[in-house]
Amino acid sequence: MKIGLISDTHDRLPAIRCGLALFRERGIETLIHPGDIIAPFAAKLLAEWAGTLHVTYGNNDGERAGLLNVLPQIQDGPAWIGLAGQQILVHHFIDWCTPEDVAKADFVITGHTHRVEIRDADRTRLINPGECCGWVTGRCTVGILDLETRETEIIELTP
Hints:
By secondary structure, the chain is α/β, with parallel strands linked by helices. 21% of the residues lie in helices and 31% in strands.
């Protein structure tokens, strides 16, 4: 099973559209967004996703009630997702995860730093797909995680 990873979209609608189109082209049905959507108008694009969407609040998601109205599944992290026999911990920032939670997870999906990072901590794979918005690094990136092989592909978008 492959899942899409998109984070730190920060209201950049062309980048969000581009990322969602890529996931559709690749046949991805499940997305994880670990926060910093920002405004409800941007959340509406994510709400149109035909598959499953898991999403947590980020530190810049100030309009929480509006986001919740558009995305009723949004929640504070840590969020736990069980998929394909794997336990996935989702939180906006890796530093907000407890060491105990990280140790229990097969995968930890975060954002916040706007930098792509893939590393292993014992049996746990830590993944930050970078920023979809491209505001900080100049790179609009998303990821695709294969839960069976543990491979993570980072794709640079051209919105």
